[in-house]
## 1
Amino acid sequence: MPPASSASSEAITAPASIRPVDLIRVGPRGRESRADVAAAEEPLEIRLHGSPFVVTMRTPGADKELVAGFLLSERIITGIDDIGTIRHCTGEDEAAAGNVIDVVLAGGAADRATSALAERRLVTATSACGVCGRRSIDDLMRDSPPIDAAWTMASGVIAALPVRLRAAQTAFEETGGLHAAGLFGCDGVLTAVAEDVGRHNAVDKVIGGKLLRDEMPLSGQVLCVSGRTSFEIVQKAVVAGIPIVAAVSAPSSLAIDLARSANLTLLGFVRGDTFNIYSGADRIIT
C-alpha cells in the first residue's frame, strides 16, 4: 500500500472509488495519527424488471457498465438491443442510495430474465465468486462458438501491456487496493480501463462499456488483468469474443481448460520481457 498521506481527513476529497480513513502509522519514531484513503467497496443490487436478481460487492463507479457486462457474461443479454432501460433506482432508503440498478430488457432477453427470476437466483457475489467445474465449460461451449480470430501479436507488445495498464490505474495510486482490467488493440494501444475491488467486476466494466457503446464483439481486442486469471474471467472473455487474455499472475487450472476448449490465447506471469503461454500459442509472434 502507498505511504499514508499526512494531510488532514477534512482536506481529502475522495471520488466514488475511494474513501477517507483515519489510521495510526507505526515507524521508527513511534506512532503517528494520519489520514489516508482506502478502496471503496459497497453492495450493488441488480434488479430485472423491478425484481431482485443478484447482489455483488463492487467499487462504486461505472455501475451501468458493470451491470451490462455482468448480464452479458450471464447470457441474459447478447447485445445492446436486448437492453430497454438501465438506471439507478431513486426513492430508496439512504443506505441503498446509488446502490440499486434496475434493468428492463427487450425481446428474448425479457423471457430469459423471467426464467432466471423464476429460479430465484438471488445470491451475494464476492470478489472471488464464480462458477466452477467441467460441466460449466461444457455448458458455455454449447452456447459460445470457439474463437476463430486469426490475427497475431508480437511478444514485445504483450510484455508492455501490464506497464500501460498500471499507468492508467488512477485509483490504485491513491489506495493500493484495486484491481484493474484493460482492453487493448492488437497494436497495444489502450482502448478501455476499469478498476474495482474485484477482478471480475473490472472485467465486466470494460466489456459492459464497449457493449453500451455498441462496439461488440471484441474480436480485435486483448484483455489484460492485474493479478491472477480465474475461470470466470476467461469465461467473460469467451462470451465477449476476446481472443487473447493476459495477466501479471497465474491462471487457474480451470481457466486453462476453458481457454484451450475455446481456442483462446491465455498468457500468465507477464512481467518484464517474459511470460507463459498456456493456450493459443499460434497468435503470439516471438
Note: The chain has three domains: 9-39, 42-132, 153-285.
## 2
Amino acid sequence: MNRSARPWVTLALALSPLIGYCDSSYQETTQMTGGQLVDSLKNIPFMGKQMKSLTAPNTTTTMVHGNQKAVVTSTTTDIYDLDKQEIIHIDTAKKQYSIDTFDDMRKMMAQMPDKIKQAQAQLAAAQAQPTQAPPSNLQFSFSVSVNDTGVQQVVNGLNAKQQILKLTTIVTDTSQPGTSATYTVTTEIWTTPDEPQEMKDAQDFDLRFGQALMSGVDMSAYANMLGSASSAGMAQAQMFAGQPGAAAAFQQMGKEMAKIQGTPILEKTSMGGSGTGHAAPQGSGAANSQPASQGSGNPPSLSPSGIGGALVSSIFGKKKSQPAAPPPAASPDTPQTPGETTLLETTTQKSNFSQNPIPASAFAIPAGYKQIPSALAQALAKQQ
C-alpha cells in the first residue's frame, strides 16, 4: 500500500462508525385527554393541582447523533454513549447525575441468571402451597377485532391511514340472570406506510447499543434463562386459558393484530363499558329494584370479587363525560358503541421529526450538576 494513503485509511476507519448516520430527532407525547374518571377526579377540590399534572402532556424527545443517543423528558435525561461505553442518568429536577459503565452492567447481567433461578424457585414453592380459591359466579367472554376504515389523511406531516382496534370483555353473573357488563378498549390507530427515517435511526442505534453491551457476555446462561422464561410464559397462558373462551381469544388476537400495517404515529385509546340488568346502589352489592335497560351505561351488580364491583357501579352510574378536546392532529372520532360510557381516554403521538444538526450540549452533563453513585454502582459495592 502507498505510504501516503495510510493516514487517509486510518482516518476512514476511525470515522466508519459515523458514516451513514445523520442527526435525527423526534418526539413522543402521551396525554390523558378525557373520560368520566378524569372528570370525576377534577370535581374533587383537593385534586386540582394533581389533576393538572396528571392530565398535562408527557413528552419524550429522542435524539441520535452518531454513537450517541439522548432521551429527554421534563425531569430527566438519559445519554447513551457507545464510544465511552457508558450511560449517564441526569436528574434535571435535583441537578444530579450518575454514570453506569458497560462493564458494571455486564457484571450485573452475569448475576441475573442465578437471581432469576432463585426467584423462580421461590415462586414454585409458593405455588406448591395448597390454596382454595373462592367460588365465582362470573363468566367471561372475549373478542378482538381490527378494522381498516379506509380513511386516509395527513397526520403530523405524514400520510397515514386509520385502523380501529377493539378489545371486548363481557362479564356475566350467573347468579343474576340477565345481568352482564361489557368492558371495551377501543384504539384508533393512524399508521404511516413508510417508517420515518428518524425512528429507523433510533432503532439502529438501539441495535448497536445491544451488540456493544453484550460483547463478551456468556450467552449460554441467558439461553437457558430464556428457555425457563418461555416455560413460565406457557404456564401463565395455560392459567389464563382456564377461563372459557380465553384460549380462542388469544389466537384471534394474534390474527387480528397482524392486520395492523405500517408504523403507528397517532393512537387514541378509549376505555369504558356498558351494562344490562340490575344496577347496584353505590357502595352496595345488592341489586337495585329498578331495572336498567340494555346499553343504559349502568353496569350490573357484580359480586365484590368480580371486576368492576361497587367502584365501577359508582363511576358508570354517572352521566357521560363531555368529548375531550381533539389532539393536535385532528382525526375523526373513535367509533363508540351506543350507550357506552367512556371511563378514560388517552392520546399518544409521534411528531416533530427532524434531521437538523443536534447541538453537542444535548449529550453533555450540565454545568454545576453534582455526581452521585448510581443504583447499580451501589448494588455492586454491597457485594464486595
Note: Residues 87 and 131 are 45 Å apart (CA to CA).
